[in-house]
């Protein structure tokens, strides 16, 4: 077994440190200027200076990417000149020295016979003994145990309980200074594991606790096509780690010098930040104080848990949190109230490692007067552990798309009050009470009695008395601020003409400024639009729950008499069609921007289809529904005709045909069948429009009657796909990337839905130049005259094709 390894060892002995060797042997040194390169040419180890500073550091970086350091040996001991050397002694000690000056060292415990230091293709620098009988199994030392600011695939963030080793991530001091910065991301404590970002001794952000399946409070890092996270909890080790599905995509976690935890991947020749763990204001640790819950829509949106009230009245400072309306009376009638959709609070403790049911957990918590809450999770894989909380409950967040359940201790008086309110509520709903004229109440009639009941429940903080089992079913919980008509009128200068910025699908759009200084876009739905009400409800219900940087954010709504308004974040660059189909502005949209718009739309759509809790088919994807922020980042908007689907009915659904010609898939336009694949079709059309700068519908070419999709296919089959590229684009572009885009675009517009890729494959194919892209076949709807030749049961003559307005009045049968 060890013979081949030993042979390799002999051969290396005969030669000095060769260029591009991956191993340093006993008695060899590594001088400044020399490097070790891993055998697959992935990583390189040697001396570097960050950002052309004069200080020298010994570290590991990616071999084929502009300097991106993943590990630093002497981060707090910079070398001031080029004369230090790394030496490996025949006893196996590693030292970075210049004469008497020692910058860094590793001294293995115990005797070592044939030491060698090797850089592996996963970025791990390992010290091993070639004579050790068990081969390469145990390393004497490895850089993966000495995490700096970067967590590579296969690295572990956590504890080895046997050796006491704790692996934390610590940020660089600044982008140009690798010395230990202010932020540390560490796993603790090992018995109810959660990950905490520290700034010195202050908690900044908390991810957890682990509930056996994921960390409470963010479900963004779940396994997907490229990324496979793992949390290991065994008697020996407790750690978080991850692997990537295909090693050819490079990726890493980092803690930035500013304290953001990011997951980056090398895509499109640059580091792309795929996820930042801290998403919003609510991710600041303890922002709403004890017993406060943070709602992530706007800054300062704290509320007390039901049964608690504010300690302070300052609306901006919630650090005082909330206190109980009724004090506990330990051992005399205290009970528990169930709360849902929460990020679990801090300071939990696991009750040993034994399988318990919910009643046992409750009994355990009742035993101790300082136990404030409990829940049941499955950390140890034994079926269920009790998680108990002692002391004040802090750092809770409303988390509708992946929150947890917790049972909180309450006085008997509170529990009785809840039961009474519940009974009353049933009566209220039964008689269908009329609603007051307050804006905030009117919406309830719109959304119906179901939502009325839900909102009332929310006003009691969406809880129910524990053991009340009649409370199953999906939760519908609207978390949307309701603005007063006066405030909205003020913000928009009384809906003045000067503030009008556009005409959306179902009404006019005004720019406004809230008293807080925030710019907003107010969509005022047409009074006479029969569809308006339905679209309004749909949009409010759907989008209020969505959070993604490529989706436009709904901030609130307002109802006044017949008026219905939606208040969005304001996006200064208007919609994509404004840029794409204007001969002047089009010139300014360079390829890099176009590509990032394509990627952004793809990611937003992927989120809608696969990642949001509500799985959503947008059904009306087109350039005028893509808004652009000040940096030209795309945001998908207009969810007026979007549909949710469940995993069970993820196949095709049939519906009234609504949408926009030119972007509709064949099966939808003809039969009313829609699925995620009909969105993929629209995305493909959009992609080809972005590449070419032409509209699909109304495309004109002197030589043929094809639409843009047909034209693209014709060019593709003639081997002239680049002929599609916008002639007005004023700069050079990477040919391979453009070709890959066109190929993906053609795949998305295939005739048969099953031939079209899913959005996750689209994101992969677009994002990585190494992924395989299948050959497209002839696309669907490549001739403009499709509608006249089909057997569909609607009459084309009733349609108005003159612009790309959304069609809503059309019935399919
Ligand atoms: C390293 O040097 C020491 C002392 O010069 C010598 O005893 C030893 O054999 C050398 N080891 C190797 C592997 O060359
Ligand atoms: C490099 O720096 C070390 C430590 O400061 C010093 O001892 C050594 O003399 C310097 N070497 C040169 C060539 O200046
Ligand atoms: C350290 O610095 C001195 C110069 O002061 C130089 O002569 C020596 O070679 C350097 N290198 C090592 C490995 O000590
Ligand atoms: C990735 O590389 C590691 C070694 O660097 C190897 O153990 C693993 O099997 C590889 N995984 C894949 C999917 O290629
Ligand atoms: C590991 O990292 C810590 C700092 O995080 C450092 O103090 C320590 O010396 C390192 N140990 C080794 C062997 O590199
Ligand atoms: C890691 O974090 C834990 C908890 O904060 C701390 O006790 C430990 O010293 C840290 N370890 C390192 C190497 O910084
Ligand atoms: C890198 O160095 C350049 C010039 O030396 C400086 O302008 C820039 O701010 C530095 N970057 C960082 C991150 O320190
Ligand atoms: C918990 O107990 C189960 C079975 O009793 C055992 O398999 C598992 O290893 C234990 N886990 C820990 C972390 O002690
Ligand atoms: C809130 O008020 C309660 C009762 O008045 C008090 O015990 C508690 O310490 C206060 N909490 C904070 C954080 O001020
Ligand atoms: C209640 O729990 C706390 C925290 O674990 C502990 O310090 C205290 O001794 C317990 N009290 C009783 C009566 O068990
Ligand atoms: C990983 O990507 C490379 C480059 O595209 C490809 O050749 C290889 O087959 C992929 N491996 C797996 C396991 O998918």
From TrEMBL:
Gene3D superfamilies referenced in this protein's UniProt entry, alphabetically: Bulb-type lectin domain (2.90.10.10), Hepatocyte Growth Factor (3.50.4.10), Phosphorylase Kinase, domain 1 (3.30.200.20), Transferase(Phosphotransferase) domain 1 (1.10.510.10)
Class of the enzyme per the UniProt entry, highest EC level: transferase
Keywords on record: ATP-binding, Cell membrane, Disulfide bond, Glycoprotein, Kinase, Membrane, Nucleotide-binding, Serine/threonine-protein kinase, Signal, Transferase, Transmembrane, Transmembrane helix
Reactions the enzyme catalyzes: L-threonyl-[protein] + ATP = O-phospho-L-threonyl-[protein] + ADP + H(+); L-seryl-[protein] + ATP = O-phospho-L-seryl-[protein] + ADP + H(+)
Entry's transmembrane regions: 427-452
Top-level taxon of origin: Eukaryota
Residues annotated as signal peptide: 1-20
Residue stretches making up the Apple domain: 330-411
A molecular function (GO) term: protein serine/threonine kinase activity
Topology of the protein relative to the lipid bilayer: Single-pass type I membrane protein
Boundaries of every Protein kinase domain copy: 495-781
Main subcellular localisation: membrane
Pfam family, one: PAN_2
Residue sites binding ATP per the record: 523
Boundaries of every Bulb-type lectin domain copy: 21-140
Enzyme Commission number, as recorded: 2.7.11.1
GO cellular component, one term: plasma membrane
Compartments reported by the entry: Cell membrane
Protein family per UniProt: Belongs to the protein kinase superfamily. Ser/Thr protein kinase family.
Name recorded for this polypeptide: Receptor-like serine/threonine-protein kinase
Source organism of the structure: Eucalyptus globulus (Tasmanian blue gum)
